[in-house]
Amino acid sequence: MTTFRWYMLGLALLFGAYVAVEYYRPKQLDWSPTLRNDHKIPYGTYVLYDQLPGVLGVAKNQVQAIRVPIYSQIEGVDEDIPTEQRLEQVIEAATDSMDVSEFERDEPAADSTATAASDTQADTTTTDEDADYAAGLEDGDFEPATYLLVSRTFELSRLDCRSLLRHVARGNDAFVAAEDFNSYFADTVGFTTKPVYPRFKTNKKGVQELIPDSVQLQLSNPALARQAGATFRLPAQAVTARLVARRNLPEGTITLATDAQKRPVLLRVPHGRGHLYICTVPLAFSNYFVLQPRTTNLAFAALSYLPTGRPVWWDEYQKQGRRGEQSLMRVLLEHEALRYATYLALAAGLLFVLFEARRRQRVIPVLKPLPNTTLLFTRTVAGLYRQDSNHALIAEKKIGLFMEHLRTRYHEPTLDLTDEATRERLAQKSGVARTDVDALVRRINFLLTARQISDGELLDLNKAINTFRQTAA
């Protein structure tokens, strides 16, 4: 084995060892706060979702992870219909079911201002939405279910918000744990969130460092606090928002949990015949804190206010989106190994384009192809024969080419034109009359034995051969 092959074998072994070490190396723990029900990382919600049937007293098949908008889940409307079209359909249905004459008004005067027109349009829109809301409450064909969401943010459209509030007003409960809430939803319910940022300090090198700090949470219900625990201590990074009440917060709102400064982090807001539970500590429901002995009871104590024996809708649409609504690169980007391989392939392709796209040799000059002088050569040779008036050689070559044509075309390797049977066989194969074949043979024999051949005799021979070929074809 040559030295080069030893080097290649050593490189292959090193590469294989590197691949094996990287494959079996323990994976780095992922601390991303996804809060997805299928993630077993510290900040996923797999444990809570798995324990929900026992906590809320329902069968496992009654805990449903929904992957559609709230409106589509509650109202049962086609998901593919745009939001504007859905709103128009609901408003039209609500308007048709009511007495239109009650809302008839005179047309505004010609000199009315733009402000008055816009106010009138806003009042009409509000009236239509209120009519839609009231019509939805009267409809009793909706199944009771508890809505549950644990996410960093709570985003929803106006139509989704009104559908969720109408669902609660029918006598259902909704539990929403998030740090950032949709402004329309927060304004409608009557609260807002106040961010509380972690504190930093500057070290001797002038670099800011996070101060290790914790937040103490406590339950407001004394009986529940005795069973679950009086206080729960969480890192300050896990509790970054507090609830602040607005003037329109409904009466009867109860604070269920606060921090050490009595600032609410969990509220129960009455709405119609149901309740809204608003929590600003979604990480308390993650795998890490649910499995920690010191904080495990916080999540279950908060969920203990929800009714038991009722189907549960666990919202995953806010975190994972609609099923199948991912890009074509979803599979490659979802797995770490495939993601790095994709990025590496793209980078290698870019480097190849940058360095290999330029020409690697000088420009090759364009050479004109050589002209075909076969015809010119033939004419020159024919002119020499004619100049010497030596027609016998031309006739001999012409007859030799014709004989070769007969041998290959009609499969006569031992062609003998003096043989009677051969001429008969040639006439049958070519389809030329026997008399014409005999005439052509006599002309060939004559020219082969003649000492001198005139121009006319050479032309007659050429004409006879061409006539034979045309007739045989």
From TrEMBL:
From the UniProt entry, list the residue stretches annotated as the region Disordered: 100-128
Q: For this UniProt entry, which segments traverse the membrane?
A: 6-24, 337-355
Which residues belong to any copy of the DUF4350 domain? 120-300
Low complexity bias: where?
Answer: 110-125
Report the Pfam families cross-referenced here. Answer: DUF4350
Q: Could you tell me the keywords of this UniProt record?
A: Membrane, Transmembrane, Transmembrane helix
Name of the molecule in the record: DUF4350 domain-containing protein
Lineage, top ranks:
Bacteria, Pseudomonadati, Bacteroidota, Cytophagia, Cytophagales
